[in-house]
DNA sequence: AAGTGAGTCAACCGCACGAGA
DNA sequence: TTCTCGTGCGGTTGACTCACT
């Protein structure tokens, strides 16, 4: 990444963009392409920061940005992805062509969080021996607010959060050390301050938080188990509201993260 | 008609990360 | 190896709209 000695911080405009500013930016990028955001304002004749130009282009001016209402399918996908990834809006946006992370984030905060909560409450009132935390609880800082594993038995499944935790499934009888050995290196670097064991059929799911705050997220867990026999047991404990692993969910999740190492590069 | 509160969304802010110097 | 800076990300803010009283 190159560096520029150029500085252009004085007298910058802030706030809403005008049509003429939009046109200047569009014309410049159409001619010269994206990138070099710090120099674009100067070269395009804009009194804006590079950050502001980048944001305006990516979230609004780009030709393939999809405007308008979200479809039912998009709603469903966002809710599923949010359960899986938490507030990782850029990753979620990457699965929705034409939608930006900012747009999805706004949409979630204003609309889908409520919808997701409503769906959860609907499930709560159906006869079931499965306990789940509400999807909106992804915003909570720790999984410690959920029922302790001591209260868990074979008939009750405590569903760990899909964010700010790591889940590692391993056969009953294996020690925590064995579980730790299959954790990603980045996770092992942290010190575990919470550890919960939850029995799911013949496997255990470990739910950990780390003191350095550099906690794992569930997509790492997915990568960990993608293709392994325990993957289905992990599926038991997460995904989209179905308690039992079904072929469609396994296929969906597998395809979602089997992106030729794309995700792995980001992690 | 005016006031008010809730909802929406574009834009800003601060931070982390990575790469070049 | 360290420093500096560009880039990208998630959280937050504030202006605007609209429904309701």
From TrEMBL:
Keywords: DNA-binding, Nucleus, Repeat, Transcription, Transcription regulation. The keyword Nucleus applies. It is found in: Nucleus. GO terms for cellular component: nucleus. It holds the Pfam family Myb_DNA-binding. Residues 9-61, 62-112 form the Myb-like domain. This is R2R3MYB.
């Amino acid at each position: 990444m190159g560096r520029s000695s150029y500085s252009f911080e004085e007298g910058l405009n802030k706030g809403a963009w005008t049509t003429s500013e939009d046109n200047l930016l569009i014309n410049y990028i159409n001619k010269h392409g994206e990138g070099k955001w710090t120099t674009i304002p100067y070269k395009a004749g804009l009194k804006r920061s590079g950050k502001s130009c980048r944001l305006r282009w990516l979230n609004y001016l780009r030709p393939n940005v999809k405007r308008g209402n979200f479809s039912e399918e998009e709603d469903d996908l966002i809710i599923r992805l949010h359960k899986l990834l938490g507030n990782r809006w850029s990753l979620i946006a990457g699965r929705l062509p034409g939608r930006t992370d900012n747009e999805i984030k706004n949409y979630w905060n204003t609309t889908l969080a409520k919808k997701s909560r409503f769906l959860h409450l609907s499930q709560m009132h159906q006869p079931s021996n499965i306990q789940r935390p509400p999807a909106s609880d992804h915003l909570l800082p720790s999984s410690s607010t959920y029922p302790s594993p001591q209260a868990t038995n074979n008939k009750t499944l405590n569903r760990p959060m899909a964010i700010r935790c790591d889940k590692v499934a391993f056969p009953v009888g294996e020690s925590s050390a064995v579980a730790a050995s299959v954790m990603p290196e980045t996770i092992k670097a942290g010190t575990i301050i919470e550890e919960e064991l939850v029995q799911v059929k013949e496997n255990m799911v470990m739910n950990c938080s780390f003191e350095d705050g550099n906690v794992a997220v569930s997509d790492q867990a997915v990568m960990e188990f993608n293709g392994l026999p325990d993957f289905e047991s992990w599926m038991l404990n997460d995904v989209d509201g179905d308690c039992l692993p079904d072929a469609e969910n396994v296929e969906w999740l597998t395809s979602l993260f089997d992106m030729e190492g794309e995700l792995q590069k980001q992690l």
